[in-house]
Amino acid sequence: MHWVSAPLVGVDPALPEVAVRVERRQLARRRWRAAADDGAEFGFELDLPLAHGDVVWVSAGARYVMRQSAEPVLVIPLDGAPAAAAVTGWIVGNLHFPVEAQPGRLLAPDERALRRMLERIGIPYHDAVECFQPHRLASVLIGAGHPTNHVHIHSR
């Protein structure tokens, strides 16, 4: 078993890739185990969670890359009005769901409570299956659906 404590940087992208396939919630953890597509086994003991695309191991003939599984998401189109986008983001966040902001749209987990809220207030959305990568700040603050500690962000 190979032990991983942090992603590797500066790895030759010409090396063939071997995927280590995991789900989003597993990828966000700090201690866990997984196997690569070629059967190589890994143990992870991390200070910070890994992300989709991180290289975690290099052998003489390959680089081992984290590949997050696609999952059901809600795609919420954003119009050009910054205020509308801010309100939509606030609504999703107020329900304690993580969000991924992309140009022109938000991605959120496909959850019944969120669907009902969006329908009730008339915000359009559609279903998709994508690699959902919520922003890390949201993951730290929200965790698995509820804040795990009190974090205060101050600005000057």
- CATH domain class of the largest domain: Alpha Beta
Oligomeric state, counting identical vs distinct chains? single chain
Strand order of the main beta sheet, please?
Answer: 8-9-7-10
CATH superfamily name of the largest domain?
UreE, C-terminal domain
Please, what is the average pLDDT? 87
- Rg calc: 18 Å
Task: Explain the layout of strands and helices.
Blueprint: E1 2-4, E2 17-22, H1 24-27, E3 31-35, E4 41-45, E5 55-58, E6 63-68, E7 71-77, H2 82-94, E8 100-102, E9 105-109, H3 112-121, E10 126-130, H4 136-142
Parallel strand pairs: 1-4, 2-6
Antiparallel strand pairs: 3-4, 5-6, 7-9, 7-10, 8-9
Short description:
This protein is α+β, with helices and mostly antiparallel strands and 156 residues long.
